Amino acid sequence: MTLRAPVKIDGTSGLIEMSSTDITNIIKESTYQYALNPSVVLAVVGSGGNLGTISDTRKQAGAGSSRVDRFPTEGETAEPSTVTVNYSKIQMGVQSISVPSTPQGLPLYRDGTSGLKEMTTQDFFDTFIYPAIQAMIANTYAQGTYYIVQGNTGLGIVFTDTRANVGAYTAGGIYEALDQPTTTSNYSLVYRSATIDGGSFNLPLYIDGTSGVREYSYSQFETLLQNFMRYYATISGSQVSYNINGAGSNQGTGMINTILNGGGNYQTRYVNTDDYRAQEFPDGTAITANTYFLRQTII
């Protein structure tokens, strides 16, 4: 990796090399420009999302039973079972981006042997673009990326944690409906919009075929940054990518799947001398069965 120090115009000293602060501000601006028009996007779909399946589990009552002579014993009564609901609601799309053009050329830097020299595409990538992609992935400049929050917001719900509603089951209701869930938490996908720019950052210089060395305009250089960011965010080795519980940094809160841990609440109901009923209801304490994280990485 080759890092270059582009030159800028200083009102006192003429052409000087950019400082590390100058370069950092351009890296910030790169992430800002990408966030205005990302090329790796996540969407909430009804089902079949390509980030895979995550599961919500909960307990439901066992089937009720009856006898004509006595109550069925607990051993004769069906145990609570597990209900599983699968979610595959996050779809990742990687856009097809053309190799960016450089109508003004790339920034100039001072070469110890030949004076001013134009950056190569690799120089530009190494100095500005790859550090910007890394900063997004690490949440140093958290924009242009996606994360999970608890609640119903953003782009929509991608996971719902449910548990058996123990208060809905009563002995007097036997035979109770088996599955009587309650929602404990919803989790939604949110996009981090463009909020952190490079301010009034210093502009680098380029070689104009007519008038020699010139300073980029803001619009010219911002377009250059955005086009390079959009392209390299889709290219192997610098591609922004997401997964569930794979490699990478956690993006937002974990999506927690809880379930009751009891062995069953045995209850009976006397209906008449020919109808003795029993049923086991979900019970116990809520425990964490799984935690799912949306993660972001470079592939």
Compute the number of strand runs.
Answer: 21
Kindly report the spatial arrangement of strands forming the biggest sheet: 5-19-18
Protein structure class: alpha+beta
Major sheet: size, sense and barrel closure?
Answer: 3 strands, antiparallel
Approximately what portion of the residues adopt beta-strand conformation?
35-45%
Question: Helix content range of the residues, please?
Answer: 10-25%
Q: Helices and strands, in N-to-C order?
A: EEHEEEEEEEHEEEEEHEEEEEEE
How many domains? The number is 1
Q: How many alpha or pi helices?
A: 3
User: Can you tell me the residue ranges where pLDDT is under 50 for at least 5 consecutive residues?
Assistant: none
Compute the gyration radius: what is it? 30 Å
Mean pLDDT: 95
Summarize the structure.
This protein has helices at residues 20-36, 121-137, 218-232, and strands at 7-10, 14-17, 40-44, 54-60, 65-67, 81-87, 90-94, 108-111, 115-118, 146-150, 156-164, 181-191, 205-208, 212-215, 240-244, 249-250, 255-260, 265-272, 275-281, 286-292, 294-298.
Give the SSE map.
Elements: E1 7-10, E2 14-17, H1 20-36, E3 40-44, E4 54-60, E5 65-67, E6 81-87, E7 90-94, E8 108-111, E9 115-118, H2 121-137, E10 146-150, E11 156-164, E12 181-191, E13 205-208, E14 212-215, H3 218-232, E15 240-244, E16 249-250, E17 255-260, E18 265-272, E19 275-281, E20 286-292, E21 294-298
Antiparallel strand pairs: 1-2, 3-7, 4-6, 5-19, 8-9, 10-12, 11-12, 13-14, 15-21, 16-21, 17-20, 18-19
